[in-house]
Amino acid sequence: MRPENIHVTASAAPPGPQHEDCRGVASVLSRVGDKWSVLVIMLLIDGPRRFNELKRMINGISQRMLTLTLRGLERDGLVTRTVYPTIPPRVDYELTDLGRGLAEPVKALGQWAFAHLPEIEGARGRFDARKEE
Amino acid sequence: MRPENIHVTASAAPPGPQHEDCRGVASVLSRVGDKWSVLVIMLLIDGPRRFNELKRMINGISQRMLTLTLRGLERDGLVTRTVYPTIPPRVDYELTDLGRGLAEPVKALGQWAFAHLPEIEGARGRFDARKEE
DNA sequence: CTGTATCCGACGTGATACTG
DNA sequence: CAGTATCACGTCGGATACAG
Question: A125 to chain B: which residues are within 8 Å by CB?
Answer without folding.
Answer: none
